[in-house]
Amino acid sequence: MVETLLAFAFAAAAGLVPILNVEVYLLGVVALMDDGALVAVALAAALGQTLGKIPYYYVGRGTLSAPWLRRRARTPGKWAKRMAEWRAKAEERPIWGVGLLALSSFASVPPFMVVSVLAGVVRMNLLLFCAVTFATRAARFLILVLAPAWALSHLP
User: Fold this and answer.
1) What is the pTM of this model?
2) Does position 48 have pLDDT exceeding 90, yes or no?
3) Which has the closest alpha carbon to 45: 149, 154, 143, 138?
4) Distance between CA atoms of 82 and 71, rounded to whole angstroms?
5) Engineered SS bond to 12: which of 31, 52, 69, 145, CB 3.0-4.6 Å?
6) Exposed, middle or buried: residue 18 (CB in 10 Å: 0-12, 13-18, 19+)?
7) Cβ of 114: how many Cβ atoms within 10 Å?
8) What are 68-77's contacts with CB under 8 Å, separation 24+?
9) Which residues lie below 8 Å from residue 96, measured CB to CB, with a gap of 6+?
10) Is residue 107 packed enough to be buried (19+ CB in 10 Å), middle (13-18) or exposed (0-12)?
11) Each residue's pLDDT tens digit, 65-112
12) DSSP character for 122?
């Protein structure tokens, strides 16, 4: 139970502060826990990451003006032009925006923080944002923790 709460807390913090890496944290947990607990930890981390990205969503909507989040949400030079193109596509075709969110949340390409801001800019429904983020982050983290655990269990 404590491990699950720690995974949630660390993932929420990592959702806000990009230098914290939840994937590395979860890989460390793999060595310490059994498979059943890994599922709970991965799902808790997915929930933490989802909640950690909501402030970036609100920065994009313009309803949250925390200066440090605004600085973090600024797109670096190479991403600024791409974000403008993605915004136009997402406004024209909302399903494209959902697909981009799912891809970014699962693969972290394009950067998930940037896409979280973009989701707010195009006024994506918050519940849809949270549902897609949770589902894809859960899939990512389950693969991340269960693949090494499976491999370790098959070593001689």
Assistant:
1) 0.86
2) yes
3) 138
4) 18
5) 52
6) exposed
7) 21
8) 69/16, 72/18, 72/113, 73/113, 73/114, 73/117, 75/114, 75/117
9) 89, 90
10) exposed
11) 767 656 655 656 666 677 778 778 878 888 998 999 999 999 998 889
12) T
Q: Specify whether the backbone of 71 is left (phi greater than 0), alpha (psi in -120 to 50) or beta.
A: alpha
Give the span between the Cα atoms of 115 and 80, in whole angstroms. 11
Structure tokens given for 145: 């923790």
Q: Which two tokens stand for residue 1?
A: 């139970």
The DSSP secondary-structure symbol of 110 reads S
Helix (H, G, I), strand (E, B) or coil at 109: coil
The single residue listed with the structure tokens 């269990």 is: 153
Q: What pLDDT, on the 0 to 100 scale, is given for residue 80? A: 67
Residues shown for the chain = 156
